[in-house]
Amino acid sequence: MKDCIAFNQNRWNQVARKKGNPYTIPISHEALMQARDKPIEVGLTVGRTVPAWWFEKAKGNKILGLACGGGQQGPLFAVKGFDTTIMDFSEAQLASDRLVADREGLDIKTVLADMTEAFPFEDQRFDIVFCPVSNVYIEDLENMWKESYRVLKRGGLLMVGYMNPWIYMYDLDVVWDHPDQELRLQYSLPFNPRKLEAQGDITIDPEYGYEFSHTLEEQIRGQLAQGFAMIDFYESKDARNRLTKYGADYIANLCIKLSS
How sure is the predictor about 2, in pLDDT bands with cuts at 50, 70 and 90? Predict the structure, then answer.
């Protein structure tokens, strides 16, 4: 598993340095200024923004952006008055947050860490943990849920986005790169590229890295098992993904920590 983490970490560092996808391009000064005077608009998934009332339920302003480096969400939180910490395993992604913070005179704390290990924070430090789609890059979600629960205060909020697992039944290279080819069911769930690679069934593309599907039990029941209570939920679609003709490819939910 650690080999997969290191592989994905290297992949994100390379993509971030090249500004190779939309999640590696820091927010512009103009966009940030436009956002400053509007209700908060930030995405956990593609295709839909988080309802503003999710943030209004927070009892305080200390927010941990979990695995969301890249100079996009962090600056939005900071300019809206949140005490902002961004944790990511990609130093290049965190560098983008620092670039925007320096450019705009914002206070954004950046922490290089891996969410499959203990988070480097004391118990009950944050009011919000905000995690856009990223747990697709780790195989086991238990530590992520456990540590998110630990670092949240009582009444703290977990906002998380993740992939709808059904999309991994298809060859994503065909889905994205060969729109003229027929879509065919190919993989059983959960999709585990590490095991498929070991069996000789797939070859990992360095451009994309290891992506793991997770069952809804791992995603939803995994949160509930730690003691979270789910209080809202939505689906969204990436219009660029031709699978969304048949269903939503993203899920997001809001949970609350009820006890200390």
Answer: low
Q: What is the pLDDT of residues 64-119, one digit of tens each?
A: 999 999 999 999 999 999 999 999 999 999 999 999 999 999 999 999 999 999 99
> In the chain, where are the structural domains located?
2-164+220-257
1 — pLDDT class (breaks 50, 70, 90): low
State the alpha helices, DSSP H only, in the chain.
Answer: 2-18, 29-36, 52-56, 73-79, 91-104, 142-151, 172-177, 193-198, 216, 222-226
Instruction: For 7-26, give one letter per residue: b (16+ CB within 10 A) or e.
Output: bbbebbbbbbeeeeeebbeb
Pick the CATH number of 2-164+220-257 from 3.30.360.10, 3.40.50.300, 3.40.50.150, 3.90.1150.10: 3.40.50.150
Considering just the CA atoms, what is the radius of gyration of the chain in Å? 18
